[in-house]
């Protein structure tokens, strides 16, 4: 709290510069051609507080796709559209320790209900539940929800969407398996279209930070002064981010960083710091954090991004534990 | 905070009385003869704050064994004895979604390192690492550590220990598998003796609450005014309690209750409420909670205990999220 | 051998009558609407020897679809079209003990090569390898091959094909998974069309018996006096029928009946009795057996069919062991 | 048949000399110190026919331990001691495709019944069932049974037994798991003592061949002119050897060699050629084959032994298919 904004900004820039070296330890997601082309050396961070004050550093203008970060958003939307009991009947909220695209538990744990909404199987199920009679209607709902939060219209990166759509065989396998088990609420191709389009929504780190801020504030948008989604859903989303948000490194992330966060293979990380978790930080009433670093580790998390976030959390004493 | 201590005490007694009905939905652990004899209708809770004030209700004099709650304690001790890197080389900190006694991942995920210290495989590994040249030395260390926290000497329920020792075939299978993979630091029978003796340590709910208080306070004992274990270890313990503490219902517990907690098949639950998670509660500087309700669900958690804890967390707005 | 043909025929009729009672222990496959409509009380058997002599009993005029029995035929064809090394590079020949539609091993045993051609994953892979630039060309090849063996043109039951095509979600999941792992030789929908059309080819028990005869004779058609496929491929097909032919009851079938056989969920069973396995039977130079009994057990095998085949094998001392 | 005995003997010597080169592709089992010391270049074969005529070549005087080959013998004995229904209630006869020491299916397929007697879990269960009130009594029964077959007393290699006993952690894990599930008929340590002693019984290739001969002849000893065990048990043993006898290469062995066989990590292979499977061979009334080649592949089968057996089977047209 004693840290001056300028000083914070300076620190942030210094850390970005320091952790940019770590980008060399990872590489851009290579199974999606459009992601493989990104510059692996990039790193960016933005933090926005409850009064709208933002600090940022690095490649903050860079646009990137949400990928798995979108899973948090559609989970919140599905809870609003269908109510919590309906959603929880179709997707559990237990962590697994499995890779994001694993299909084994759908068969090994009958009745094949996906274990949580943060792995692909659960996320596709969630996307199928969104209100709307067509993929387009569902996607429009997602974009409108994000526009409410961020205050500007986002768009879908068509090249990324097409690239993923062409290579979505594993996700198709998951979706057909879910359809066979009765867990999809709309046809397979429609669910996949929604899921892959939500993954291809383009943002920058400031946009991510703003989403994180509203989640941190239990669904209340501190600038709009408006409750956008129920507190209970926000708490649940944060719990899921902690137990399952960082793929099968979620346990280690909770252990060593201790913040609700969700990563994507684009190198995006969204973190939500509730006020009480940031009491002794420069953001004592909470903040949202957006990070981008496209060089990812084999598990799918931004290498430099995770290290930068650990630095922030440690130095500024931000933790929910 | 506006709630008067007397009023809180009254409320607590009322809730215990209300949730005692839920004990009928579970039953005492029947695979351990000594546990099967317990009175399934019992329910007790104790809460202790940073200034030593305690409120409690129900069968608070009842003694019960720690069972899996002891896993948190030995994990903390192992980290103190061996250092974090040594411990983490032998046991991971990832949640699994598997049952507590599952053996599958030891084979399916090479090199067979146990996924976390809260499942039996991980806990046995941790017990094998404790300082001490004999099981007795290791157990003595555990008892001394607990005496420091609680302020009185605890003892081992010999009947429970003998009962579990005789029926420990599944745990022996886990231990021999771990030995084969090179993850045990002492002979199988020694590791099992430590593990089963720590499980048979007898406490009441006030004792549990005091352990929870020190963990809540990051290892600092607010009454002794002494740091008993490093803050980093305490944070890690709380993260593990959130991601893996309630067996394969940990995800749901985090989602709907949102507190670091660890359960045992004796019906014990230990919860640690950090100050920031209880800011708007009657314990604004944090507290420890001990619960006992021996009627457990098929997953291993006290049925009435979980419901009572949910009531407390909800009514008093205690959550880390 | 001493048994007179008339006597054999009489015995066969008597056994069919006796084992028809066992049809009550099973039920028609209910996940395929067109199969669910079949009369569960039906039972039929035909046996054809190397000199073309046939004995048969029961509902021998009934037409039914090949279903999984077709997997043997396409495996033989793929070996002829591509050569054994090519085929074995894409599908292994190991039994699994898993259900026919299991997907787990594709993920748990890298590189995800299907374990054998008798489970769906392996059979779809095999169908994708058949010569032909379109599904129609591949299917035509299968029908021509069968026409050569049986001496008449078979046709595809369009209703069954459409029924399975509409409900093929689990098979689609398998196929997309295989495509993702690089094991399919043609597009998913093409491979599925071939696979589901081969499953829908209609035969009667005499047709099945004739196919069995040629396999029994190592690919040599004793009536046409012509080698239709290589001896090595026939031996391999018989080995696969023994180790994997009766779904996850193959081990028990080998143990208690001891003949190369392949079943389908339509209630079809194809058995091939090499000469040496029938030395002391009424067919001392070998025979083919076709059985039909649409009431199947939970594993997928005709309940009465298996019992009838066991009676035949035991009474007539037919076994490869 | 036209082949003269001398010529056969000459051929055999030539093949042994030829395939000895293949020993370089494997290595001696290194997890058992006493096996690791064996000479990896050794190779030996013996074949004995129904009239007692034997041909052999290579290191035929070398003694080696039965290891997993003993599983066939104890399975036959258990069936004699307890009756088939009793045995089959405790161990299934389905192949798995898993490694010999896998524990996963005991948990993943409830009720945890071992899948077949040829994997360690099943074999330990079988050993626990043998008649006898002590390990020594059970082992004595095994040795007496073998003495009846071979005509001489065999002994246990104490060094190998001790070596395996010290390092049997994985087998202990299996045994304790089985005990926990209720599948063991005697205490864990007793079952393991029997199992590891039977594995350490010492034979040479002629001994193995004689065991194979009796199994080939459906339990009838052609020299003693005596039925040593029931025909049905012999058929079942041969079926198990075909579906599960060569570890998780059993499918390929059946496909390309096509004889009932059982291997051990000592490099032993026992094969049983029923008369009808050798009709066109130099042993038209059947034979037993014993092979020894201690350099094994990663799956556990003698590298040169399998190739030599393939040569024999192919050249002499021996196959059950």
Automatic annotation (TrEMBL), chains A, B, C, D:
GO MF, any single term: glutaminase activity
Residues the record lists as binding substrate? 68, 120, 164, 171, 195, 247, 265
The protein's matches in SUPFAM superfamilies, at most eight in alphabetical order, are given as: beta-lactamase/transpeptidase-like
EC number, UniProt record: 3.5.1.2
Q: Which reactions appear under catalytic activity for this entry?
A: L-glutamine + H2O = L-glutamate + NH4(+)
Q: Which domain of life is it from?
A: Bacteria
Cited InterPro entries:
Beta-lactam/transpept-like, Glutaminase
A Pfam short name: Glutaminase
What family name appears in the similarity comment? Belongs to the glutaminase family.
Q: What is this protein called?
A: Glutaminase
Q: Which organism is it from?
A: Lysinibacillus capsici
């Amino acid at each position: 709290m004693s840290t001056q904004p300028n000083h914070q900004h300076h620190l942030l820039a210094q850390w970005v510069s320091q952790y940019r070296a770590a980008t060399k330890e990872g590489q851009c997601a290579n199974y999606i051609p459009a992601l493989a082309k990104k510059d692996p050396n990039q790193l960016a961070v933005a933090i926005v507080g409850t009064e709208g004050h933002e600090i940022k550093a690095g490649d903050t203008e860079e646009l990137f796709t949400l990928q798995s970060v979108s899973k948090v958003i559609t989970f919140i939307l599905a809870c609003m559209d269908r109510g919590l009991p309906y959603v929880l009947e179709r997707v559990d909220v237990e962590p697994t320790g499995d890779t994001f695209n694993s299909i084994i538990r759908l068969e090994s744990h009958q009745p094949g209900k996906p274990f949580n909404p943060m792995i692909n199987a659960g996320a596709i199920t969630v996307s199928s539940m969104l209100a709307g009679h067509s993929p387009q209607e569902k996607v429009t709902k997602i974009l409108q929800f994000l526009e409410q939060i961020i205050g500007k219209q986002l768009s879908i990166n068509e090249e990324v969407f097409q690239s993923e759509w062409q290579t979505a065989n594993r996700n198709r396998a998951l979706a057909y398996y879910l359809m066979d088990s009765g867990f999809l609420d709309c046809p397979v191709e429609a669910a996949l279209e929604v899921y892959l389009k939500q993954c291809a929504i383009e943002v920058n780190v400031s946009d991510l930070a703003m989403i994180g801020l509203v989640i941190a504030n239990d669904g209340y948008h501190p600038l709009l002064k408006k409750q956008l989604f129920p507190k209970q859903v926000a708490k649940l989303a944060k719990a899921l981010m902690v137990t399952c948000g960082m793929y099968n490194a979620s346990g280690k992330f909770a252990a060593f960083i201790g913040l609700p966060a969700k990563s994507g293979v684009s190198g995006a990380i969204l973190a939500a710091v509730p006020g009480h978790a940031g009491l002794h930080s420069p953001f004592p009433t909470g903040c949202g954090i957006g990070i981008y670093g496209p060089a990812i580790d084999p598990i799918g998390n931004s290498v430099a991004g995770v290290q930068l976030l650990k630095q922030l959390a440690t130095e500024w004493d931000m933790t929910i534990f």
